[in-house]
Structure formats: structure tokens, C-alpha cells
Amino acid sequence: MMPYDYDLLVIGAGSGGTRAARVAAQHGARVAVAEEYRVGGTCVIRGCVPKKLLVYGAHFAEDLKDAKRFGWDVPDACHFDWPRLRDNVLAEVDRLNGAYTDTLTNNGVEIILQRAEVTGPNTVRLADGQEKTAERILLAVGAHPAIPDCPGNEHGITSNEAFHLDAIPRRILIAGAGYIANEFAGIFHQFGAHVIVMNRTQEILRGYELALRDRLLQISMMKGLEFRFDATFEGIAKGEDGCLTVRMSNHEPVVVDCVMFATGRVPNTRGLGLDSAGVELDGKGAVGVDADNRSTCPSIFAVGDVTNRIQLTPVAIREGQAFADTFYGGKPTRVDYSCVPSAVFSHPPIAQVGMTESEARQKLGEVKIYSSDFRPMKNVLAGRNERALYKMVCDATDRVVGIHMIGPDAPEILQGAAVAVKAGLTKAQFDETVALHPTMAEELVLLR
């Protein structure tokens, strides 16, 4: 008799959990995944994938305006059908949910569509009361949007609900200034809403290169987005007409049709029963793990956003892969968290990898900075004054330690550059590379 029902039981079928489950099963392990909602997790179901599709849709607003300068007769007032886009995006989510489900099933992973809670080092209880045992338990339950504690917060929505709106609000206030806030600010603005971004500090996109943050703020304000800095909620009141009056510190109240909270994400550890197995959490409720993703309970591991290390889908996938290879594939692997590229799909988008100028000066002392501030060719002919900015940070030996970009297609361009930064290439090696002309990407090898 096998001592456990499974070799591995994964709680959560998001990006990290599905990768770990699939790879462990391919290595020969008996694997089950318990998921209380839908297979695919935050990224596929209510995060980066549907959001990126909305970003694509939003770009057409400016593209249609620019098209006239390129010879296309486009009506001055093009009709945008939000329900059509929304439903098409949700249909794609359904397709991906099915694809992820098929991938797990085809690799012999048992899918349990129930909530699971830990009841001991090797046991979980399902929603229907069944108990399951496993030699190892992997927590891959992700995180959820944080809701500010203020009167009337029940009237707001989060990014989860933004994909299901009946209509685009005429006026929306978005609380927060991180990547989710700035991405949805651009999306709603391009779809015709008047957008107010409210933030408790004076900074947007904390952790990104200052020059890029300043450029995005400048461009956003030129486009008509409003910002309320040093503002915290004092209350949200819903009127008889359905409008929301938002009171905030240091500013006059505003009346909007929708309030969206984009004020961070909280690990999904509440009610998971981790105390029963001695799994310790940090001050933010995240599972503390070592370099091998092991918690303070030797048989329980965690990957992805529930660990609050770097809340990015590719990082969760790498962690899931490393866990499975280490414990089931005979290939000990640890994730390298240095030089992780990231992007903000704002309008225009931002992408960066490595150290910012400020970080480099603090850690390295002497640094060299190269930059290019230019107007993309397409914007010139379109009569659009929006400028792109590329910035390269090098150490005293001219090794490239950071690249930061804002402009059209910046995330697509940065992926290749991230390989160069990870490889430790120098500015001279960039300079020795022949430019691909005419492109925006060529600015990376022409920086001065």
C-alpha cells in the first residue's frame, strides 16, 4: 500500500501550480491539483492575459486617429463596442482555461475542482469534507487585490471585476499608482472614460526608473488623465443616481461613476489552515520559504505570489519548474532572481531590466549613463508629439547593469536586451552591433 494518496498535491492551478504539477507528473510523480475556481489562475483568468487583450483593443483608439495621416479615410467618430470586446476576451479566457485543463489531464494530473485547506504536514481537507494525503504539498494559491479600509469601500471594484463591466464608465477614479493602476488608467482613457488616478504618495510606479516615471506622468497628463497625489480615502458615498462621491484627504471631493481599487495584492493564505502544519507567514501574510521553496514545515512548499517574492507570472513558472525538477526530476535547481525584466503596459508602455540609476549609484558608486530621447518615426508622421526615452546604466567597467525604456513596443524590444544584461555584456559590445534600421530598437546600439 502506498503511504499517501499522492506524491504531490498542489493547491492552486495558476501559472506556478500548473507548471509544477505538469513537470512533476512528467517526472513520474502521482500528482493532484486542487483548484476552487478555474484552472489557469490569476494571469490567465483575471490578470495579465485578458488585460493585455484590453490593451490591444485600447491601442486602436490612437491608431485610428493616426491612420488619416497615413492615407486612410477613417470616420471622425468611430463606434467602440465594449460588450463585443469584453465577450471576445472572456471567450479567449474560456479557451485558455480548457487548454490548461487539457495539459494537466494529458500529463496524468488529477484535477480536483474544490477548495482545499491544509490540516497537517501531509493532509488537506477538501470542500466536500474528504481528506487527502500527500508526501509533499505545494501551495500555489496566489494573491488577491487589496481593498482600502474606508467607509463605502463596498461600492468599489478591483481589476477582477473590471473585465466584466456592463459598460465603460463615463468617469472613473482609480486608486493606486502601480502597474495595475497605470495600465487600467490607459485602457479606460482610450475607451473614452475620464480617468482620475488617486495615490497616497507623490510617486507613480515606485521601483521603476525615475526618468521613465516622470515621462509617463507627463504624457498621461497631456492626454487628459488627472492625478490626485498625497490622497487617502475618507469615504465613498453612492447617490440616488448611482454616482459615487469620493472624499479624500488634501483634495476636494470628486463625483465619478466607478471607483477601482488597484492598491496592491495580498497573499491568499487566510483560512488556508497553515497553522495546523506549522507554516510560518511574514508580516504581510506571505509564506516564508527558503531557496528551494520549502516552508517552515519540511513537507510543505510554496511558489508564486503567495510567497510575495516577485509577483510576476514568469517568476512563478520558474519557481514551479525548479521545484518539480529538484524534487522529482533529479535536477536540483534554484531560481536566479537577479535581472528579472518587467513591463508596464501603460500608454505608452514601460519596460526595464536590472538596476535603476539610483540603485546603481547606491550599490556600485561610480556609474555611467547613456540615453536617447527621441520621437518615434510613426509619431512624427502622425503628428503626435509623444517622445520615447531609452536609458542604459553601466558600471565603472562599462558593463551594462540596467536598461530602461518607455515608448511604443518597449516590452517587445526589451526581452532581447534583457538577455544581454543577464549575460553581462558591455556598452562596447552594444556599440559594435550593427543597427537594424529604421527601427526604434536600433537606439539601443546608438545610445550616447
Radius of gyration: 24 Å
Based on secondary structure, the structural category is alpha/beta
General form: globular
> CATH superfamily of the largest domain, called what?
FAD/NAD(P)-binding domain
Mean pLDDT: 97
Major beta sheet, specifics? 7 strands, mixed
| Name given to the CATH architecture of the largest domain | 3-Layer(bba) Sandwich
Explain this structure.
The strands form five sheets. Strands 1, 2, 3, 4, 5, 6 and 17 form a seven-stranded mixed sheet that branches. A five-stranded parallel sheet has the order 8-15-9-10-11. A five-stranded antiparallel sheet has the order 18-19-22-21-20, sandwiched between helices. The chain has three domains: 6-144 and 266-328, FAD/NAD(P)-binding domain (3-Layer(bba) Sandwich); 153-263, FAD/NAD(P)-binding domain (3-Layer(bba) Sandwich), CATH 3.50.50.60; 348-445, Enolase-like, domain 1 (2-Layer Sandwich), CATH 3.30.390. α1 (15-26) links the parallel β1 (6-11) and β2 (31-34). It contains twelve helices and 22 strands. α1 runs parallel beside α8 (313-328) and α3 packs antiparallel against α4 (82-106). It is globular, with a radius of gyration of 24 Å. Helices cover 32% and strands 23% of the residues. The model has no long low-confidence stretch (mean pLDDT 97). It is α/β, with parallel strands linked by helices.
